[in-house]
Amino acid sequence: MRSVKISSWHNPNGSFDVARVRKDFPVLEQTVHGKPLVYLDNAATAQKPRAVIQRIVQYYETENSNIHRGVHRLSETATRAYEGARTAVRRLIHAADDREVVFARGATEAINLVARSYGGAHLQAGDEVVISAMEHHSNIVPWQFICREKGAKLRVIPVDDGGDIVMEAYHRLLGPRTRMVALPHVSNALGTVNPIKGMIADAHRVGAPVLIDGAQGAPHAGVDVQDLDCDFYAFSSHKLYGPTGVGVLYGKAALLEDMPPYQGGGDMILSVSFEETEYNVLPYKFEAGTPNIAGVIGLGAAVEYLTGLGLEAVANHEDQVLAYAVERLTQVPGVRLVGTPERRASLVSFVLGDVHAHDIGTILDQEGIAVRTGHHCAMPVMDRFGVPATVRASFACYNTEAEVDVLAEGLEKARRLFAGV
Ligand code: 7TS
Question: Is 398 within a domain?
Fold first, then answer.
């Protein structure tokens, strides 16, 4: 069985033909305001290769049917494709069993599922949930909901000036009251790659399970949930070249077995009477109702596409472009990086003098460049670094160093326009 270790983030081997890869993404062929599109908003959502788009078309043109219930041909074909995607995801993250792969609407729903189901069953007044100061809102608010309901307390690990988690503070926060630790694999606002393997082991020493928000982790390198020994790992299809509306919750079978269903409805039951309902087995217990069948099948095609490129080769290529971006952008007068973490993946956040990020984004758009500007759904990170917003350039397998040059030139233009910067 394939096993991609986390050290593959910076493996120097592997060749990568980015020009060929770009041809797989139809959206990249267009111009915006008369300029070639430079798409650097991949942390928000990645573009889709033709293989994914065509797989979804094929499903709707020839296989469309509900799953797990029909004995007819189309239903069997659709069910096989849907379950095939589950196996592809299981292999991607090196989970032990297909039963540990639950499909949800996205990383957000996957985290809400754990907070509500696991948290609802296990949290009591006085218990503590530990998160970090670099969370996306979707790894804050679900925990706030359940903590408030149960009288539990949310404890927050601080982040240092470079954008790394303060490890001593983390160790101080862990204790007998810790019932859950929820951490991002990679920060969507700073680019920090957290040393999650060690942090998971630390949490386990006090008996706390760990949920990893892998929304920005899974798309950019191999994830091996068994090697990490995480209890839950959540990510979204659409940041991994798949369609929107689909996400994955990995959970250790023993924990998922023990958890109550998150939603009730069709497919999550074995038998129902008005007196009693018997729940279905894993993973169906957590997949109530007709799921996003086309989306899941599309995700399966995305996983196949990404593994076909080679996870290590993609990670190496992205690391190269990212290293170039960090170097090139810091040479633009007035640019200040927000976050200079020890290990960075896939994105760079910055400000340009005191020009508002949205103004920069608008000028870059005129150059055909798509970046994200704002708080990136991580307002506490903006507070921590004393900025209202940042500009964020985030990279995927199809980005190039030439595109970084276009971005740098666009920033020079913005600087000239806002004289005095
Ligand atoms: N966690 C992290 C770290 C994220 O970056 C995001 C989305 C989510 C969770 C939620 O994922 P969803 O697919 O369920 O919405 N992040 C971003 C972003 O950085 N810009 O747009 C969405």
Answer: yes
